Amino acid sequence: MTELIKKVVEKLIEAKSVVVFTGAGVSAESGVPTFRDKDGLWQKLKPEELANFNAFLRNPDLVTEWYSHRRKIMHEVKPNAGHYAIAEMEKYFERFTVVTQNIDNLHRRAGSKNIFELHGNIERNYCIKCKKFYDLGDTYPDKAIYCECGGLIRPDVVWFGEFLPEDEYDGAVKAAKSCDVCFSVGTSAVVFPAAYIPIYAKQSGAFLVEINPNPTDLSRMADVVLQGKSGEILPLILSEFKKQKGLL
Ligand code: BJW
Ligand code: ZN
């Protein structure tokens, strides 16, 4: 592991532009459940029953309650050492971009500034009819909620079969295609088009590093696979980087 981390840091020292692509695993050590691990969200609940628009129209109470439950967890937890290491790294590079699939706001709360959120953000909600935005604050409705126009209010997240927000995706693709080092952290990398981000980076010549306790479809493509938890490995990378830069 130490040798692999040194190899990654050598690349980082030369890098001008870095992309960190993250998924649910980066928030696992904060206490946010992942989707596809053995104790992940979708072992109990089927995605097609919850994370798509037709499911919402069919059963708005259930979907609203599910998002309230998750938003409450996300409010109760704190960023972990992985989020903080990513946020600190941003200071040391000319261009540093976080591309996240997570909707939990934890990168921003840890201090990251340059973030593309590919699957939306659970803090925003909007009316499906008139598109008015609603801030639900610390309320966690257990039934569907309606706009003053009568339309249903939904979370501003990307469900299956929906397009990703264009500006976020375009910005992420541009960063991926021009970075020197790309990290893929805590994601099974099975959901597209988000999972194209590390692939585009690698195809464009970036050094690709995967951080995950388990192998994924992306592992074969990675230049270095660091097998373990992001909350442990990212701080090790940061401290080795600072040591080599003479910042420690
Ligand atoms: C740790 C750890 C620790 C644990 N440290 N690591 C091309 C090919 C095939 C299919 C498609 C394709 N293009 C499009 C599709 C269809 C579909 C898709 O991808 N399906 C596949 C699943 C088969 N994609 C879509 O529908 C997308 N839209 C689209 O394509 O639009 C175009 C279109 C429009 C109209 C018609 C047709 C096409 C939209 C996808 C939206 C995904 N939305 C969700 C829900 C968001 C809201 C919410 O959170 O509720 O996004 S699904 C869910 O999966 C969520 C996540 O962001 C996403 C990715 O999951 P993630 O983050 O990778 O989590 P896990 O659980 O899978 O993995 C966790 C990892 O962490 C594991 O590897 C662990 O080992 C690891 N881990 N502890 C580090 N401590
Ligand atoms: Zn409305």
Mind explaining what this structure looks like?
The protein has 10 helices and 9 strands. The chain has helices at 2-14, 25-28, 47-50, 53-58, 60-76, 81-89, 106-110, 166-177, 196-203, 230-245, and strands spanning 17-22, 95-100, 115-117, 120-127, 133-134, 153-157, 181-185, 207-211, 224-226. The protein is elongated, with a radius of gyration of 19 Å. Helix 9 (196-203) links the parallel strand 7 and strand 8 (207-211). With 248 residues, it is α/β, with parallel strands linked by helices. The chain has a 6-stranded parallel sheet with strand order 3-2-1-7-8-9, with helices on both faces. It has a 3-stranded antiparallel sheet with strand order 5-4-6, covered by helices on one side. The chain is 38% helix and 17% strand. The site of ligand BJW has 36 residues, from helix 2 and helix 10.
Keywords:
248 residues; alpha/beta; Rossmann fold; six-stranded parallel sheet; 38% helix; 17% strand; elongated; binds ligand BJW; binds zinc ion
Task: Summarize the topology.
Blueprint: H1 2-14, E1 17-22, H2 25-28, H3 47-50, H4 53-58, H5 60-76, H6 81-89, E2 95-100, H7 106-110, E3 115-117, E4 120-127, E5 133-134, E6 153-157, H8 166-177, E7 181-185, H9 196-203, E8 207-211, E9 224-226, H10 230-245
Parallel strand pairs: 1-2, 1-7, 2-3, 7-8, 8-9
Antiparallel strand pairs: 4-5, 4-6
Bound molecules: ligand BJW and zinc ion (ZN).
Ligand identities:
ligand BJW, zinc ion
Gyration radius, to the nearest Å?
Answer: 19 Å
Question: How many structurally independent domains?
Answer: 2
The helix content, as a percent range, equals: 25-40%
For the largest sheet, list the strands in their spatial order: 3-2-1-7-8-9
Annotated CATH homologous superfamily of the largest domain? TPP-binding domain
Judging from the principal axes of the Cα atoms, what is the shape?
elongated
Strand content: 15-25%
Beta-strand segment tally: 9
Please tell me the CATH architecture of the largest domain by its name: 3-Layer(aba) Sandwich
Question: SSE order in H/E notation?
Answer: HEHHHHHEHEEEEHEHEEH
Straight-line distance between termini: 21 Å
Overall pLDDT: 95
- Biggest sheet details: 6 strands, parallel
Low-pLDDT segments: none
